[in-house]
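Long-time lurker, finally posting.

We've been working with Putative SAM-dependent methyltransferase (Cupriavidus plantarum) and I want a structural starting point before designing mutants. I don't trust myself to interpret raw outputs, so I'm hoping someone here can both generate the structure tokens and explain anything notable. Sequence follows.
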Amino acid sequence: MRAVIKRITTVEQREAVRTVLRRLRPVPKVDVPRFADRLHEFSAPYRLHLGCGNIKLAGFCNVDALETIAADAIDDIRTLGRFPDGSAREIYACHVLEHFGHDEVIPLLKRWYAVLQPGGVIRISVPDLDRIVRIYHKNWEHFQKPGNTPWIGLIYGGQSTPYDFHKTGFNANWLRHLLEQCGFEQCEEYPHEPHFVPGTVDASVANATFGEYFSLNMMARRPL
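Top reply, 14 upvotes:
Generated this for you. Predicted structure of Putative SAM-dependent methyltransferase:
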């Protein structure tokens, strides 16, 4: 058979076949480290970073529904079943709240309120509809040019996973109202920069493409 193949093929053709066959060889399996839950490394009262994604905040227990590279604990942040009432002194959720439906927001905020200890602080960052509308209007011509999307990711979510869809929106007046309905007090906006966790870069400080911040950053407290 080899003699026949040599007669009907060139050296170059045979080498090309060998190259293809080498590429088809099984790739050695690589052991991927399993997710290591690290909740046991933290103690109450917790500082919780909810919906952390791939951003790990130093000093916080980073919580997500998925086994991300930053997560310390996996939990449904709507219910926080792994965190008892009054077990957290601080909660931070950056560009998370908009991923829940209109009828989910109040129950979710009430649960976060319950997990906070009296006097605890909550910080929430969400896309700010007021800012987005203003920036969009100021840069109208930009969004009319071919290839420039109308900020569909910022408005509708990245849509890279089932969790990455935006289902509702906020401005300062509406978010303050919702927080107060859940019992929070001292609801006020806080500066985009510097980040309250030094060295952190996340959506709360983002200002691309036009050099203007498009997030609403609001903090509030659970009364003593």
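Before you design anything, note these points.
The CA atoms of residues 190 and 217 lie 6 Å apart.
The helical segments are 2-8, 11-23, 102-115, 129-138, 140-143, 152-156, 172-181.
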